[in-house]
């Protein structure tokens, strides 16, 4: 609760300060302070010191997993805003408002990590999405940015509509918005469901909810929006959308399924008798296929990262296929691994003049520090040991193999992991093995370089001791 | 003490990246490699039995940083430690841009391979298995020949695909261990059904077969050896391909004994076919580097066949041949790169009459060639003799076909010798002089090793006896 309320408050504070504070340099400091306060408040809540309690009548349920996810999301946002603050300032004139919108997005993510009622899912998704539509179009004079914004808005609201329709159908079928039922209730409801030969409304509603969620996490076949929108919006905000926002959507997705043993969710009740694991396997394979194969053919690194984010979403979906403890831990690791690396890559990309692969030629000579950091980020995304990306993939594969019977998904997964190496390494080729000079549109300051190296070192440190992250989930 | 073998090259390698002056980097690399050699020598001579080290690393998933050094590991560590000073001293005059980077990558490769030979924890083994690959990839792609990027990437993709299958295999077996541990000993005590053994066997062996490489997975090797810089080729063929044989003996034979008995016929057929095929191709090669590459494939094919003959005597032969082949092929590469430097070509048809220009080089190459042919009194004779003996005991036809390769080896080796060193002096060879002193010293050291171990191979046999016994009796 702390985080939800504080992020809303800070969103308003940022909005007001953009009206009253004239010094543009001050915004990022206010925002950073705000983020740190939210982080601390959230950590306090994790250790049961919650002081902003509002009765939610069971519509929100705060558990360790969701709260810890919040902590990681805020930490990633702090890294993001520290690394890309200058780029945020360069997007346009309304810097304070951009930060305000980021706070509102965070507020939506915090609701998504705690919803216990399908209505709250809808509200969370909306709170998260609407600021993003604005951020996508932040570069008002740029036609591409406008186009992306409109596209995102139309597609996003359409998919939210589908989600809402699904929720309505489920309500019609079950008469309840509540997400979880306790064991005693299920037994009767299972019996009831089986007797009724599965309510048609339930199944139809669930399929619509799944469709809406697949859209939000850009899983195939609902992934077509992602590349255009990531490509069109300002690089800083693509970075934010592709990482923290996507992670938020994933956490909402996994919450639709029961994560505790004696509970089952309305979704699972509705899907009794449906081979939904097979359905997920098909979605995973399709996502991996479209994301990876299309990424190979991209000449622009920014577009390649957009497709790579689809491909990585395919790996994160492994968690939804397996739904066990390993999958839970793995999803957290994956979120961190993928976010840190992608934030780093986009942060450096935003400084570049030329977004194509050729623009990276010879980076190792002209900017060795940035090239080194980039190389580590790319190695992490391809899942090479000693980077956190390896453990992320390891946990996902482990989770799937543990499930049993889905070994083939794991094998398809690794084949696509090998394919992904190809396009990640093409950037490394350009940087290290090709001649050329890299021109930066904006100079890389010393602080920026240090931050890039710190991000790279975080990846290596967590890649050696992934327990640093996972320990906090339990202790 | 044992951890020093990994620690010295890692630390020296990292420092080397920051050394600006080429001379200082060279001294550092040479000093560090000699220090590692000294440490390995002291360990091999003084340590009785198996040396172990066990530190906690990832307790939650049951993986420890545990190293163990039995006879086979001692021998291969010694080979690894001996190879690097020889490589460095023979290639030290070659001109590279950014020497610190070059030597750093070379040292990190050595560290990774040390880890592979020492690891007694399967996840740790996987870590090092991949870590040995990354620096050599960067090394060869930055400093190699014209088509280096494609050729080395082919090598990388092949091995990476193999290692991901290995990862799946490791996870698959890990989930079957009763105490959920990655320790090698708990993998040894697994009780697997026949199907589980078959699945695990192929998942593991595929990775190792690619690394060796066994026909028909060998296609990366000639390209990679041709395009890599000479130091890279040397480390690849002298030490890195031994990782495949080593891992087969360490993991495949003890963990999947029944599957090995099921499939060893197929593998021996492939290995023997590969042995003859590579020897025949080698006869037709006009490029000295490709000739040595195919010759190396042939030798490895024989070792692989001998491993799967499952005879004690054959395994003893493999053990000493791993060391001796490493030494011999190193000698061949050193001579080959010296010749290339002198004449500016690698084409056998363009050379001739080198013996009159560089008699010392001719004598040294003669010794390397004879060792490659496994003439009695050279080190590889006893190894090959034992391996053929093992193969004959397994099946007389397999042995007979494998023996044909002895003739083929003699044909292409002596033919190459004849074309290069005798006959008319060509325009490429007319300006050739003796190889520089440092190369000669390195070759003299190798010659001494060849002759001493050829006359008195008992130390190597004694050293590895414990591993052979352990592997044969586990079954």
TrEMBL record, chain A:
Domain NADH:quinone oxidoreductase/Mrp antiporter transmembrane intervals: 116-416
GO molecular function, one term: NADH dehydrogenase (quinone) (non-electrogenic) activity
EC number, UniProt record: 7.1.1.-
Bilayer-spanning residue ranges: 6-23, 30-50, 65-83, 95-112, 118-138, 150-171, 203-224, 236-258, 278-297, 304-324, 330-350, 371-394, 406-429, 450-474
Catalytic activity: a quinone + NADH + 5 H(+)(in) = a quinol + NAD(+) + 4 H(+)(out)
Gene Ontology CC: endomembrane system; plasma membrane
Intracellular or extracellular location(s): Cell membrane; Endomembrane system; Membrane
Swiss-Prot/TrEMBL keywords: Cell membrane, Membrane, NAD, Quinone, Translocase, Transmembrane, Transmembrane helix, Transport
Broad class of where this protein is predominantly found: membrane
UniProt membrane topology term: Multi-pass membrane protein
Biological process according to GO: ATP synthesis coupled electron transport
InterPro entries the UniProt entry points to: NADH-Q_OxRdtase_suN/2 (IPR010096), ND/Mrp_TM (IPR001750)
Functional note: NDH-1 shuttles electrons from NADH, via FMN and iron-sulfur (Fe-S) centers, to quinones in the respiratory chain. The immediate electron acceptor for the enzyme in this species is believed to be a menaquinone. Couples the redox reaction to proton translocation (for every two electrons transferred, four hydrogen ions are translocated across the cytoplasmic membrane), and thus conserves the redox energy in a proton gradient.
Family, as annotated: Belongs to the complex I subunit 2 family.
Quaternary state and interactors: NDH-1 is composed of 14 different subunits. Subunits NuoA, H, J, K, L, M, N constitute the membrane sector of the complex.
HAMAP family registered for this protein in UniProt: NDH1_NuoN_1
Name of this chain's protein: NADH-quinone oxidoreductase subunit N
TrEMBL record, chain B:
Membrane topology type: Multi-pass membrane protein
Annotated Gene Ontology cellular component terms: endomembrane system; membrane
Superkingdom of the source species: Bacteria
Residue ranges of every copy of the NADH:quinone oxidoreductase/Mrp antiporter transmembrane domain listed in the record: 119-405
InterPro entries: NADH_Q_OxRdtase_chainM/4, NADH_UbQ_OxRdtase, ND/Mrp_TM
Keyword Transmembrane belongs to the record: yes
UniProt keyword annotations, A-Z: Membrane, Transmembrane, Transmembrane helix
Transmembrane segments: 6-22, 29-51, 71-88, 100-120, 126-143, 155-175, 199-220, 232-253, 265-284, 291-310, 322-339, 360-382, 394-417, 438-456
An example Gene Ontology biological process: electron transport coupled proton transport
Pfam families registered for this protein in UniProt: Proton_antipo_M
UniProt-annotated location(s): Endomembrane system; Membrane
GO molecular function list: NADH dehydrogenase (ubiquinone) activity; NADH dehydrogenase activity; ubiquinone binding
Family: Belongs to the complex I subunit 4 family.
Name of the protein in its database record: NADH-quinone oxidoreductase subunit M
Organism name: Arachidicoccus ginsenosidivorans
């Amino acid at each position: 609760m702390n985080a939800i309320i504080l992020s809303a408050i800070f969103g308003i504070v940022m909005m007001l300060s953009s009206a009253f504070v004239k010094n543009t340099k001050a915004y990022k400091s206010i925002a950073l302070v705000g983020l740190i306060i939210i982080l601390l408040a959230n950590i306090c809540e994790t250790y049961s010191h919650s002081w902003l309690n509002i009765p939610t009548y069971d519509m929100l349920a705060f558990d360790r997993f969701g709260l810890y996810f919040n902590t990681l999301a805020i930490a990633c946002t702090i890294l993001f805003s520290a690394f890309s603050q200058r780029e945020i300032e360069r997007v346009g004139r309304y810097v304070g408002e951009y930060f305000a919108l980021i706070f509102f997005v965070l507020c939506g993510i915090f609701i998504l990590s705690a919803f216990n009622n399908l209505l709250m899912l809808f509200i969370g998704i909306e709170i998260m999405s609407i600021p993003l539509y604005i951020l996508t179009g932040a570069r008002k004079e740029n036609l591409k940015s406008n186009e992306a914004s409109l596209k995102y808005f139309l597609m996003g609201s359409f998919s939210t509509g589908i989600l809402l329709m699904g929720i309505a159908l489920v309500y019609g079928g079950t008469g309840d918005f509540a997400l979880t039922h306790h064991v005693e209730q299920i037994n009767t409801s299972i019996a009831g469901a089986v007797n009724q030969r599965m309510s048609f409304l339930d199944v139809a509603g669930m399929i619509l909810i799944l469709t809406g969620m697949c859209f939000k996490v850009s899983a195939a076949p609902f992934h077509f929006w992602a590349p255009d929108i990531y490509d069109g919006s300002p690089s800083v905000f693509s970075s934010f959308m592709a990482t923290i926002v996507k992670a938020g959507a994933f956490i909402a997705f996994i919450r639709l399924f029961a994560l505790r043993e004696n509970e089952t969710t309305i979704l699972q009740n509705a899907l009794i008798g449906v081979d939904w694991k097979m359905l997920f396997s098909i979605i995973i394979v399709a996502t991996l296929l479209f994301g990876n194969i299309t990424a190979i053919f991209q000449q622009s690194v920014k577009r390649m990262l957009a497709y790579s984010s689809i491909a990585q979403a395919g790996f994160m979906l492994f968690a939804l296929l397996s739904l066990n403890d390993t999958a839970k831990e793995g999803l957290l690791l994956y979120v961190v691994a993928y976010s840190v690396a992608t934030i780093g890559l986009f942060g450096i990309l935003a400084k570049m003049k030329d977004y194509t692969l050729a623009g990276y030629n010879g980076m190792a000579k002209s900017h060795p520090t940035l090239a080194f950091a980039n190389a580590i980020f790319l190695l992490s995304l391809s899942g090479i040991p000693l980077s956190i990306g390896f453990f992320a993939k390891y946990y996902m594969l482990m989770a799937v193999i543990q499930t049993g019977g889905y070994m083939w998904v794991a094998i398809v997964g690794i084949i696509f992991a090998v394919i992904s190496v190809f396009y990640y390494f093409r950037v490394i080729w350009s940087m290290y093995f090709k001649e050329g000079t890299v021109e930066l549109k904006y100079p890389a300051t010393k602080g920026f370089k240090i931050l890039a190296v710190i991000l790279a070192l975080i990846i290596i440190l967590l890649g050696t001791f992934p327990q640093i992250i996972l320990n906090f989930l339990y202790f | 003490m044992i951890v020093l073998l990994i620690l010295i090259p890692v630390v020296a390698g990292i420092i080397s990246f920051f050394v600006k002056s080429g001379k200082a980097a060279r001294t550092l690399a040479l000093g560090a490699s000699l220090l590692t050699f000294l440490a390995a020598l002291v360990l091999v001579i003084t340590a009785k039995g198996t040396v172990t080290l066990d530190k906690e690393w990832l307790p939650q998933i049951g993986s420890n940083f545990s190293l163990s050094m039995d006879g086979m590991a001692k021998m291969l560590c010694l080979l690894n430690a001996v190879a690097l000073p020889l490589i460095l001293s023979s290639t030290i005059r070659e001109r590279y841009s950014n020497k610190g980077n070059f030597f750093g990558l070379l040292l990190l490769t050595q560290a990774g391979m040390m880890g592979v030979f020492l690891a007694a924890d399967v996840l740790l083994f996987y870590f090092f298995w991949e870590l040995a690959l990354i620096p050599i990839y960067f090394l060869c792609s930055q400093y190699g020949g014209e088509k280096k990027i494609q050729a080395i990437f082919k090598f990388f993709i092949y091995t990476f695909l193999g290692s991901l299958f290995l990862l799946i295999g490791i996870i698959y077996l890990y989930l079957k261990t009763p105490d959920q541990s990655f320790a090698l000993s708990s993998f040894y005590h697994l009780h697997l059904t026949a199907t589980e053994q078959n699945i695990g066997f192929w998942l593991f062996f595929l990775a190792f077969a690619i690394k060796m490489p066994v026909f028909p997975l060998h296609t990366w090797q000639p390209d990679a050896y041709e395009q890599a810089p000479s130091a890279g080729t040397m480390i690849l063929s002298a030490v890195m391909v031994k990782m495949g044989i080593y891992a087969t003996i360490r993991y495949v034979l003890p963990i999947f004994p029944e599957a090995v008995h099921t499939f060893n016929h197929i593998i021996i057929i492939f290995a023997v076919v590969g042995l003859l095929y590579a020897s025949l191709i080698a006869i037709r090669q006009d490029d000295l580097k490709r000739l040595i590459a195919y010759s190396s494939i042939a030798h490895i094919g024989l070792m692989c066949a001998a491993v799967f003959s499952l005879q004690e005597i054959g395994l003893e032969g493999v053990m000493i041949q791993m060391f001796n082949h490493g030494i011999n092929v190193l000698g061949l590469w050193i001579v080959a790169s010296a010749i290339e430097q002198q004449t500016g070509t690698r084409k056998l048809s363009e050379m001739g009459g080198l013996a009159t220009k560089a008699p010392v080089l001719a004598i040294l190459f003669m010794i390397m060639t004879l060792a490659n042919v496994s003439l009695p009194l050279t080190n590889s004779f006893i190894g090959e003799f034992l391996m053929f003996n093992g193969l004959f005991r397994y099946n007389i036809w397999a042995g007979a076909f494998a023996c044909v390769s002895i003739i083929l080896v003699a044909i292409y080796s002596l033919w190459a010798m004849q074309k290069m060193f005798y006959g008319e002096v060509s325009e490429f060879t007319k300006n050739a002089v003796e190889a520089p002193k440092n190369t000669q010293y390195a070759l003299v050291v190798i010659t001494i090793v060849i002759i001493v171990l050829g006359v008195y191979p008992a130390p190597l046999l004694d050293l590895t006896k414990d591993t052979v016994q352990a592997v044969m009796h586990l079954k």
